[in-house]
Amino acid sequence: MIVIADTSVLISLSAIGKLGLIQDRFPGGILIPPAVWKEVVEQGKERPGAHQVATSNWIEVHDIRRQDIAKLLKQELDEGEAEAIVLADEVKAEVILLD
Fold it and tell me: For the chain, how many helices (H) and strands (E)?
């Protein structure tokens, strides 16, 4: 099963010590787009989730190809949400975790 996650899901579950719920539910791991990595790990380096996501072996960063679609979505959504939606479509994900 291909699963995509957005920033807020990772941060929120990390803040309450429950990030492992995602791994429990999706033992094959999840994919995140580069914008989600940037928001959680780089920009949020002192916030909940940064260390857990950076060191996780079940979260994989996956590039998006259709930057044009992401750019359109970013007019209404934040960068992580836009890229997560594009990635979900590109890889034909069965689940996308958004707030």
Answer: 6, 4
